[in-house]
Design brief:
This protein is mainly beta and about 260 residues long. It has 2 helices and 11 strands. The chain has one domain (about 10-260): Porin (Beta Barrel).
């Protein structure tokens, strides 16, 4: 079979998947460029640093963790993040089951500190393709348990979050996902709050990542967070989040196999 020329356009299934990913990337860009809040205020700004190790356990079962530090420049808090334990079971190459526990401690300068425990369970589905792009959906249920450290009072929130994402190599197909190559990241993630029967927040992310080698990936991501006051209020752009994530594979090839997503 003769190789396709560039003039043949988007005719194969792989090219259609690439086009779909580019459309999602464009959509995420449109969302993140939404300007100011409806009340005229500027969005808050937060910086996040996260280290995410991944390791095999046995067979199709693997584990992961997250260790992070967040600092909000406007709300003046520091947040410490420990995601552990985390488990991924590969039912099929295109289907994974996720489960784990995220732990947060927020050190507020002006209000009471908050401890949050967030157990979760979910399903991640990939779209198989030969274009070597990562097109997926990660849907999970979370049970958020938050304690006001000063008063000892707890609040409980059930929510479901569903991330529609794409990762596109900035290389030829032959070089995709190899060391010393770049790829783009884009995803949109609505959060459904069961207690208020509404979408809050809605997050859109876009960024660039670098495959240093088979075991290390570095991601620089911008996230726009849209929130609402109540069910009848519109979503407003209330927060900018700038993240530097380092993903580490404790065995050869594990990062490529699980293509792990990030917590928020």
């Amino acid at each position: 079979m003769e190789p396709r020329t560039r003039a043949e356009g988007f005719r194969t299934q792989e090219d259609k998947l690439v086009l779909c990913g580019l459309v999602l990337l464009l959509f995420a860009g449109l969302v993140v460029t939404k300007p100011l809040r409806a009340d005229g205020g500027d969005p808050d700004n937060e910086v996040r640093l996260t280290l995410s190790p991944n390791h095999p356990i046995r067979g199709d079962l693997s584990g992961f963790g997250n260790l992070g530090y967040y600092y909000n420049l406007d709300k003046k808090y520091s947040k410490y993040y420990l995601g552990w334990p985390g488990l991924i079971y590969a039912v099929m190459p295109w289907l994974q089951l996720w489960g784990g526990l995220d732990n947060f401690y927020t050190d507020n300068q002006d209000t009471a500190d908050v401890l949050e425990l967030r157990p979760f369970a979910g399903v991640k589905v990939f779209v198989p393709n030969r274009a070597k792009i990562n097109l997926y959906n990660l849907t999970r249920y979370e049970y958020r348990m938050s304690e006001n450290v000063d008063s000892g009072d707890w609040t409980y929130v059930n929510r479901i979050r569903s991330r529609f994402g794409v990762e596109i190599p900035f290389t030829s197909r032959e070089e995709a996902w190899k060391e010393k190559t770049f790829y783009g990241i884009a995803n949109v993630e609505p959060y459904y709050r069961c207690d208020k029967d509404m979408i809050d927040p809605l997050c859109a992310r876009g960024g660039v990542a670098y495959v240093l080698n088979d075991r290390i990936r570095i991601e620089l991501i911008y996230q726009a967070k849209l929130t609402r006051k109540d069910k009848n209020s519109p979503l407003e752009h209330t927060e900018n989040i700038f993240s530097l994530n380092t993903r580490i594979g404790m065995s050869q090839g594990i990062l490529q196999r699980i293509r792990e997503g990030e917590s928020d």
